[in-house]
Structures are given as C-alpha cells and as structure tokens.
C-alpha cells in the first residue's frame, strides 16, 4: 500500500517535472520570438504614426547583440541616403518591421530582434547564424502609403473601382517622382508584380477595393 502510494507520488513528481520542462520550453520559445523596443527619443508632436502600408523614410544602424559589432549603417551604405520602404508588408526584416509600428516622424528607437525574426538560423553575411540583432532607427518621414483607400481612388483613373497593373505602376512612378527617388523601369515592374501577387486574391489581373485596402486588417 505504502509502496503503491510512493510510486504514484513518484509518478506525480515525474509528471510535474515533465510539465515544468514543457512549460519552460514554451516560455523560452515564446520569449525568444519577441522583439524589444526602447524609445530613445520621442518628439513632442507626433504628426502621423506609422501604420501598415505607410511609406517610411528612415536611417538605421544594425548591431550584433552579443558584442555590439556594427554590421549595417544606412548613413554610410551605398549613397548614404535614408531608406524608403513600405511598412508592414515584408519589405524589410520582420522584427524590424514590427518594431516600427506606431512610430512617429522624428522618433528614435532601439529595437532588439531575436534571430527568428531577423536573419534566422543561417544568418546572412556578415550576420552570423542564430544572431540576436539590434537596430537603432531614426524615422524621418511617414507618408500615406500606396495602399490606402485615398491612394486607391487616386490610382483608379477611369473610376471603375478596379486597379490594373498599369494604373498601379503609373501611381508608383508619380510617387517616386514626388519624392525625388530615381528608379529603373524594372523596379516598378517588380513592385507591381509583387503587389499583385500579394493582393490579387482571385487572380483576375486587377485589384478590387477589397483586395487592395489593407487597412481593413491592420495587423502585422
Ligand atoms: Ca481602374
Ligand atoms: Ca482581383
């Protein structure tokens, strides 16, 4: 009798240990998938917070968390110009994109990104495998992105409530011109192809309001 209860107690303890190990595993994998955001500077007036689909203009530096080695600096890379990119659509690495949510023009953030949301198990030269990275970002401008309802109406030149590839491309070219960004024709073709691949759900070669208006589901 006593032996039996000892045994079941042992089973109970073992079960508990397994459970604890399991919970630790879950917690560990959850916490390793989280980014950390530190606001280094917040301007007094926030004119327009970054939302999914907005066009952001930013400078950023990338560092390895383990020893602080800098692996990227937009101020010294290529022409030293800040980058333009669409927020929340996978144009930049996922953890960085997540870390820019609701950021204000003029704001500075330090965003710590685990490998799973950065360069992964393999890394990407010069970032080694499984590296946690830190980005220091200065957001300069937030513009209404090419994927808002207003932009849809602007793009839909013949007002038929659908967008053709040509309409989208013309709009992108106009935006680039306004922002003084020089791009090759192939760049616009690539962007348009990408936009249609992501949004043309019924694959009819045009985008409906519903297919294009990403603000209706505004999560990352
Ligand atoms: Ca149209
Ligand atoms: Ca369609």
TrEMBL record:
Keywords: Calcium, Endoplasmic reticulum, Glycoprotein, Isomerase, Metal-binding, Repeat, Rotamase, Signal. The keyword Membrane does not apply. Gene3D superfamilies: 3.10.50.40, EF-hand (1.10.238.10). Its EC number is 5.2.1.8. It comes from the Eukaryota. InterPro entries: EF-hand-dom_pair, EF_Hand_1_Ca_BS, EF_hand_dom, PPIase_dom_sf, PPIase_FKBP, PPIase_FKBP_dom. The keyword Isomerase applies. One of its GO terms (molecular function) is peptidyl-prolyl cis-trans isomerase activity. SUPFAM superfamilies: EF-hand, FKBP-like. Pfam families: EF-hand_7, FKBP_C. It catalyses: [protein]-peptidylproline (omega=180) = [protein]-peptidylproline (omega=0). One of its GO terms (cellular component) is endoplasmic reticulum. Residues 1-28 form the signal peptide. Residues 143-178 form the EF-hand domain. Residues 53-143 form the PPIase FKBP-type domain. This is peptidylprolyl isomerase.
């Amino acid at each position: 009798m006593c032996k039996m209860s000892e045994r079941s107690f042992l089973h109970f303890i073992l079960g508990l240990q397994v459970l604890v190990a399991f919970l630790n595993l879950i917690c560990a994998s959850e916490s390793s998938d989280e980014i950390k955001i530190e606001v280094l500077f917040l301007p007094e007036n926030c004119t327009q917070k970054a939302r999914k689909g907005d066009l952001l203009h930013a400078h950023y530096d990338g560092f390895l968390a383990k020893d602080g080695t800098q692996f990227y600096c937009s101020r010294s890379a290529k022409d030293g110009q800040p980058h333009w990119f669409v927020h929340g659509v996978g144009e930049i690495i996922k953890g960085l994109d997540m870390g820019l949510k609701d950021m204000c023009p003029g704001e500075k953030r330090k965003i710590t990104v685990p490998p799973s949301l950065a360069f992964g198990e393999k890394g990407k030269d010069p970032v080694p495998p499984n590296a946690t990275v830190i980005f220091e970002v200065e957001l300069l401008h937030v513009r209404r992105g090419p994927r808002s309802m207003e932009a849809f109406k602007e793009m839909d030149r013949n007002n038929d409530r659908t967008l053709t590839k040509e309409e989208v491309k013309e709009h992108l070219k106009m935006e680039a011109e306004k922002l003084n960004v020089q791009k090759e024709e192939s760049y616009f073709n690539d962007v348009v192809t990408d936009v249609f691949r992501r949004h043309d759900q019924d694959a009819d070669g045009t985008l409906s309001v519903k297919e294009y208006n990403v603000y209706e589901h505004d999560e990352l």
